[in-house]
Amino acid sequence: MTATRPELLPALTLAYVGDAVHDLYVREWLVRQGGAQPAGRLHRAATAYVRAGAQAAALRALLPELSPVEADIVRRGRNARPAHAPRGADAAEYQAATAFEALVGYLYLSGQRERLRAVLARAVAHAGEGQPAR
Asked: Global pTM?
């Protein structure tokens, strides 16, 4: 199991990387959208996009367009057994969020930057549908 073959990494390892990549993408996107805002306001806005519910919803929207390899990564991520679900997320929602993060981690580690950008942009757009205007 090496980073040169990310599909061989454990799903929770992919999710660990994917969580950081998704969080950074959302933070950068928010700064580009809203200019100079207080860090506390940016943090509160970011949590609406990176919370388990938003990630699970993004995954549901992406499912029909996943490649077979991506679908396998998502399945493995959904079936992984994390230590515990965070506050405010039920088990199924958290499993779907972990699957989304595993997909993002896989795309990042496999160097599929265009596909990664497309997935993250779609996730932000999908999560943003329910957000108030900034």
From this structure: 0.87
